[in-house]
Amino acid sequence: MSAGERALHFVARPLVSFFYRVHALGLEHLPEGGFLLLPNHITWVDAIVLQLACPRPIRYIIDQEFYHKPILRPFLRTVGCIPIDVRHSRSAIRAATEQLAAGEIVCLFPEGQLTRSGTLLRLRRGYELIAQHANAVVIPVWLDRLWGSIFSFQGGKFFTKWPKEIPYRVRSPSADPLRQKLPTLPRCAKNSLSLANSALAGEVH
To answer: Is the pTM of the predicted complex or chain greater than 0.85?
Structure first.
């Protein structure tokens, strides 16, 4: 972690923790080295919530359109985000592979967009290329209780609604690592849905 990243975490973490209380579940599943994290995508602040749940820095793969916005780019560079152009993804795949080989956690939202219904969307295949090139361990994770946040699309709109509570309590269960050479799309989707069902049933410990 760079000095700039440590400074940003020092300032931002207490501030964000005031608004979100994250209960991370399944941290014992996380390997020591690099791995590919695949969460569902519920709100505009999913990346922040995931970082609160994880004891290690996470390198996020994000759309280059957001990465190059002047107001965001200094912060995104500081935390090691990887910009991707979905039409020309080779450089992003290479950068993600290098980060994984260096023992970093790389995160990709496999749905490719925010859900408008609160349910898991169809997963896209981009993560398979990264997992294949890096021979990476893949860990699905489910962000629970974020649907209804002002940053979610519940009610057909973002932002313009009152928060249900402050701090907002969130659970983040993660699944066992998928260690096969190339975790398939159906298997990743099945693991994500299994986490969702367990969270709804209150069965995740």
So the answer is: no
